[in-house]
## 1
Amino acid sequence: MDGEEPGDGGGRDTAADDEALLARMRAAPVLAGPLPRFAPEDAPNTPGPLFARWLDRALAEGVPEPHVVTLSTASRDGVPSARVLMLRGVDTADCACLFASDAESPKGRDLAANPRAALTWYWPAHGRQIRMTGTVGTLGEDAARRDYLGRSAASRAAGFTGRTSLPLSGPGEYDRARRAAQDLIAAEPGRVPDGHTLYRLRAQEAEFFQADPARFHLRVRYTRSGDGWTRTLLWP
């Protein structure tokens, strides 16, 4: 049947299927290369310029969606959660990154209760991973407004459907909300959802991982110390 996933249907031997899936995973190519060269001894003294350099190269060389990042948060009780979103800006000098969300979304509520988070990028084409952890604050209404109004019409309409992560009765309900949101932004192009918030993660640690096809990976960690940074080469 069209659209059916391999292995769907009844009568599955789950253990055998799991072994077959593991075999396919092991056979899948990893770090096929060629990968960029990274010399840790040439890395700058602060992480922001290195992040900007890696991101700029990924954009220039057509790495798919290198500005898409995984945001990890935790609730007040320490329950972790992660999701993928779009990077909304970079402060290279301070090694800070911007992202946006509805303040009443699960991630918005997590950050209100526990304003620490992690960002993780992985670019398979370059074999590069970047991790940042730090404190998160909110920027003002003007910044949030500029961010929202700078988006495409489709993105702005999506912001007005609201109800992030709440139960959905079916596609019809979503379609009605989407059409109502499109009508709203057509009638009021300068309107911004009340909860739209621009967040700023100021990195306290930043790690850069460069993979190597021969598995001699390189890993550098920057740790903020007062007004400066400490750079450390790590075992991968």
## 2
Amino acid sequence: MGRAPRFDADTLLDAARELLLTRGPAGLTVQGVVTALGAPSGSVYYRFANRDLLAAEVWLRAVERFQAGLTAAVAAPDPLDAAVRSALHVLEWSRANRADASVLMLYRPRDLLPDGWPTAVRPRNEEQLAAVSTYLSQLSTRSGTDPLRVRFAVIDVPYAAVRPALLRGRAPEPELDDLVEATVRTTLAHPTTTTQEEP
């Protein structure tokens, strides 16, 4: 049986993530990972052919980890409860996964990838975006609520709640949970559908 690699993909991505959070996007480089871990450059390039693929994988892995936890929230039979649980998942996941949460809350893909998504991983990004759009659409339909209102309640509100703490390098305060839940319930308590006005 062969030996497990000393520097597996997650180890390399953890090091890249740390460089991003401490030095910013410009500091996330293949050489930076090599230096931080004392790894042979071949170990990095074997898994990530270039800096953009490395940066893309840091982002995609964080999104995949976050979206995996939404499954239980989406499964709630009552649409208002599903919305509340989805919003609270942002806070709970950010506390348990502060480094990945900081990547998603403090940066945008264009910050990491100014030239756009590498072709090899673009489908994964598109699948992740489609999953969010599908979820929001389904929640809007189930609740009979304007999609813009749903997005505000389950994305804008919890994201705004966690971002200040993450900027300070801290976990979001537990007291935020009640505030976020109250805001979501108030926002979505009375279903509304936006109608377009005649031109």
## 3
Amino acid sequence: MFANHPGYLDLTPTQYGTALTWLREVGIVTEDGSLAHSGSPVELALFEAALLNASPLWLRDADQLINMPDDLPEDAISAGEALGLSPRQATAVVHTAWGKVDAAARKQIGSAGEEALANLLTELTGVTVDYVADYADGLGYDIAVHADGLHLDLEVKTTTRRGRLTIYLSRNEYEVMRDNPAWRLTVVFLNSERQAGAVGTIDPGWVRRHAPADATPLGRWESVRFDIPPDAIQRGLTDISDWAGPRLSGRHLLRAGTGERPPAWISAAPAV
């Protein structure tokens, strides 16, 4: 039929076979040939699968680049039109796809940053490091640091990008910050080898000033995104730097900065 029916001569049988294999691989079609998304429009699922499979460079920044249908890139517009999607539908699918990509990337990069910081802290003599994120979720911080005269609960956010720092803070993390004087919001920059290239801290006062507020008891925010400007970040960890004193060299990643504004590690960090 594919070789003889005029309605199917736009593609070769091999191309049809390759397309069917891809549809099965991305979960649009089951092994027996049935649609796997019978409860929702298949064109939406197909567009999302195509985005996730192609992973265009703009997708990882879609939350910043695409706020409305007019912001859609040409390749997304063409693909959406081919599937009969309106620009608004295509925009919604782009945001859904970005959420899945971003969540996976944040989890992977976040774990690498936590481990890198834990390793840095473990190298300090007299410091006990408890990597709580490795076995517990919901405490509101990732690493607990103990030493004689020192206790810190570090919430770690990790970035691999230059000139832009976007972090997400849960309601639980925010409330732990308000109630726990040992809580610190720590930023780790990872270089291309996924090693710590710099460490910084964000003042909890800055977080409080820019956090949303519940308008009524009937509405409550559960997660917030912060776009952190470079001048809100201080190089190093002040508490560790003060505790260790001269034991930290001037170039040590944990040594607190001397008023660099903006911190050089944010503006000069290589993109990966």
## 4
Amino acid sequence: MIPLRDDIPSRRTPVVNYIVIALCSLAFMAQQTAPDHGEGIISAFAMVPLRLSDPDAVPVIETQRQVQTPRGIEVVNVRQELGPSPVPPWVTLITCMFLHGGWMHFIGNMWFLYIFGDNVEDRIGHVGFAALYLGTGILAGLSHYITQSSSPVPTIGASGAIAGVMGAYAFLYPHARVLTILPLIIIFTTIVVPAPVFLGIWFAMQVFSGLGSLTNGAVDGVAWWAHAGGFAAGMLLAIAVNRYHIGNEPVLERRF
């Protein structure tokens, strides 16, 4: 399911949300225009679980690449040693949030943040939103670290922090609705889904996929537990915000 928009308008400009989108965009453009297509940036600023476990370790990742040989194109195993990071390993829990692995990764994350971030910022304020975004992003990274503490594979993306925003939205706006694109094989239709249902299905998919990766040992390049951990952290923080009446009351006016 792909969200198009929700039905809760914002009362003020989501400044922090726009700043985050702008920073992610600048970082992604830097990756795309780098001579090595951003591999050096990722090596330096991605969160590598092994570096958190052992800051003196030199992560080595094994990848497969297609190469031209006299017999034609063949797939060979390549061992790549990651270069040193200019920042302490714990700092990469923050820097990794602003990097992305490709256009679909980048656009998908920014779109979800655009849809749900403005209302959360409207509810808890600019400073509160910045704290929630960074805090849930760090907790999401730690959730991934707990399940992959010895992994040398770089972890990047704003997905964990955005999952935190989505978790907060699910609690703060339980009566909101989301206009959603529903792909049915080759046909695409739109439906209006209650926000808790949309976000609950998304969260369940992350948990089940994470459990699958633990049981079958599959490595698919997705930090499922970062998504699930970020969502849970965002909801818990939103509950605390609501309990102590921090921020502004949500708007109940509908868009559609």
